[in-house]
Structures are given as structure tokens and as C-alpha cells.
Amino acid sequence: MVHPIHQANPNSLFGDLTREEFYKEHGILHHENYMLNKKNRNIFTQSWRPDSPSRFKGLVAMIHGYSTESSSLIQLTAVAIAKLGFFVCALDLQGHGYSEGTRGHIPNINPIMDDCIQFFDSVRLAHSDLPAFIYGESLGGAIALLICLSQTTEWSGLVLSGAMCGVSDKFLPAKPLLRLLPLAAFFLPTWRAVLVRPLADQSFKEKWKRELLVKSPNSPTSSKPTSATALELLRVCEEVKRRSPELETPLLIVHGEDDIVCDANSARRVFEMARSKDKTLEILPGMWHQLVGEKEEGVELAFKIIFDWILDRAAKACTSTNGNNVMSIKD
């Protein structure tokens, strides 16, 4: 299928259409709500589903990356997946999008995970007959993986797109500055670390898509993480590496080979260490961090892999096929 990103232009995700016209053209029903989390913060949630009455093929829970939101470009991927016959849901992480919290400040990943689990559990309960998949981009990929480690039998598949399995050396500050990060996080936790490069500039190959991201009404004034956030993201990378051998969920990793934000070699190591009997790794030559930020042919190649994998595993889950070991690597 053709990814809806190709309808977008530098001024709007929906091209020349209004959001309502866009959804109608694609046959999608959209719903927004707020969830009160355990800390009494309002967390923005939304869902997409095909407007046809046919039975859903499965459920896909999506987690966006750092300094973005569920209403940004990942929304167009949600629409594409919904058009395939899935119920799709997402939330804005604390401090992102329409959710409450200090903008872009994540000193501890655990409350973020708690929000995701609380919301996704409620959606899965309402659709308990469906195979459930979790999809994460960048930081969202690391969170999705950790959720699968926490809920070992709840998910039919895990899809990681440019996942934060490790931060690229090309993106990190010089080592002497990196050693100062714990002190900065302790004494100045909300200081916007100026030690890393602008995230969007390194993530989207097509400039107009970068500009579109910045034009979002909820776009942060700075994509640079706070010092406490930067330290926590590095800790999360280490936890992902350390705990990868515990992962047994069916797994698809799709990663750009030229990603200088989240290291492709770290994604390879996670794949190799995972105990998942069904696992697939696709390292895509020449591609950057955000796969939706590629040129049209690159977008179609990357997302065909993702969509085909989800469709295939949903069909297998629905027909209760036997658990033969499956492993494929294309590098």
C-alpha cells in the first residue's frame, strides 16, 4: 500500500485536506480522549480504526519517540495500519504533545512505562479476542521492548523502528563532557543539555519533513533533552542491552544503516541476544533514523516490510498455527 506520508506537504500532515477530510478519504474513524494516570496527570490518547464493519485483524499499540507526539508523523503510519484492518491506539508520553508534564523531561522512564501499560491494558481488555502488537519508534522502541519484558505473554509481536537500543557515538558528546553528565543531572536536572546535536536535523533525510515536524503546534522549543533526561536515556540503552536475552516476544527490527542517532549495531546486538523464536532483522542501506523521513521509494520499502510482517503474524495468531522457529536476517 502507499504510505499516507506521500499526501503530506511542508505545511500540513494532511496535504490540501482538513484532518476530517483526510480521515474520510482513507475510511478511518478517529477518537481522542484523556486518561488520568496514577499520578493524576492527564495523558492524551487516541485511536484509529477502519470505518467498515468487518472484524479487526488485530490491535496495534504505538509509542512515539523523544521530542515528538502521537499526532505527528507517526499518526500517518497509524492511519496506514488501520487501513489494513487493525485497531490502532497511541498516547502522548508525559511531557510530550497534549499530555501533562514538564516538556521533554524524563528523569525516570518507569512512570512513562506505567502510563503505556495502563492505557494499552485498557484497550486490550476491550479487544481481548484480538492478537495485540506493540510498535515503537526511537525511544518508543526501547519503551516497547521493556514493556514486552514486563508483560512476557501479553503481546503477539514487537515491532522496533529505528529503536533506541543504543545511542550512536556520532551523536554523543565528547567523552570528557559525557563524564560530567551525572553531575549536571544531579545539580541541574532540567538544564537543556547543549552537548548533543539537534535531533530532527539528524533524523529526517527529507528537509521538508523536518520542517513539517517543527511546525507542529506542540513542537518543543528545543529538541535537546534535559541533563536528567539524557542520563536516563543512556541508562535505558544499557538496560535494553542487558535484558535483551530475556526477550521472547516475536520480533521485527527495522533500522536505517546510516542512522547516526540510534546505533544500528546496537539493534543488531539486541536481535542476536533476543531469545524470540520468531525474529527478523532488516538493516536498510543508506537510510536514516526516521524511516518515514526517507524519499518515497525508501518509505515504501521500509513500511512494506513492517506492514507485511504485522499482517502475517496477525493471520498466524488468528489461525493458531504451531510455533515453528522462524529467523531471518537481511543486512
Element-by-element helix/strand order: HEEEHEHEHEHHHHHEHEHE
What would you call the structural class?
Answer: alpha/beta
Distance between the termini: 23 Å
Helix content: 25-40%
Shape, per Cα inertia axes: globular
Radius of gyration: 19 Å
Fraction of residues in β-strands: 15-25%
The number of helical elements comes to 11
- Order of strands in the sheet with most strands: 1-2-4-3-5-6-7-8-9
- Strand element count: 9
User: Which stretches of 5+ consecutive residues score pLDDT under 50?
Assistant: none
Describe this structure in words.
The chain is α/β, with parallel strands linked by helices. Helix content is 37%, strand content 18%. It contains 11 helices and 9 strands. It has helices at residues 19-26, 74-83, 110-126, 139-150, 175-179, 181-187, 199-203, 207-214, 227-243, 264-273, 296-319; strands at residues 28-36, 42-50, 58-63, 86-91, 132-137, 157-161, 251-256, 278-284, 326-330. It has a 9-stranded mixed sheet with strand order 1-2-4-3-5-6-7-8-9, with helices on both faces. Helix 4 links the parallel strand 5 and strand 6 (157-161). The model has no long low-confidence stretch (mean pLDDT 90).
In brief:
This protein has 331 residues and is an alpha/beta fold. The protein has helices spanning 19-26, 74-83, 110-126, 139-150, 175-179, 181-187, 199-203, 207-214, 227-243, 264-273, 296-319; strands at residues 28-36, 42-50, 58-63, 86-91, 132-137, 157-161, 251-256, 278-284, 326-330.
Which descriptors would you attach to this protein?
331 residues; single chain; 9 strands; alpha/beta; nine-stranded mixed β-sheet
